[in-house]
Each structure stands twice: as structure tokens, then as C-alpha cells.
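pinned: reference chain
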Amino acid sequence: MPEPDPINRFGLSSDDLARLVTDTVNLANNRVIGVGNAQYARGGEQRFERLTIDELFTMLDEELLDGIVYLVMLRHQLNGKRAIHSQLARAIDEAIA
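pinned: its C-alpha cells
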């Protein structure tokens, strides 16, 4: 995959994006085989197969809530990075002017 342009971060082709999707799915598969196997494998079946639909919805709800918290954490860090980026951009603009 080509290195991203360090200035404007463009240059991701559809093939590059497809590879990123494949890589992400492979990581998910590795979780199923690794930590998921330890948590959910029950002999020749998976734990979720014996759950009621309500239990499955509860698990999904908990995972969605966790996902929201992770998004808030990322947003918090992103806002800090955005402030730094703005300061750098202003300094560069002033140095060029």
C-alpha cells in the first residue's frame, strides 16, 4: 500500500481501501479463533447458540455501549490532536508569510 501524503493525507485507492477492509476482517477472524475461542467455544458449538434472543440482545447492547465509550475516548484524543494541528498550521502560515 502506498504511503499516505504527509501533507493532505490523500491517496487511498479503492484497492487500498479493500485491503484495509480485508485486514480488518482478518483481525476479527483472529479474535474469533483466539480470545473468542476461550470465551465462547463450548466443545462443538459456540456459547451464543444456546443463548435466548433476549440474552443476545443484552450482550449486543453492552457491546454497543462499550463502543460508544471508545468513540468518546477517541473523540477526546482527536480534539487534542486537532488543537495541536491548528497551532502548527498557524505557526507554519506565520513562518511562510
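why pinned: Helices lie at 14-33, 35-40, 53-96. The longest strand covers residues 41-42.
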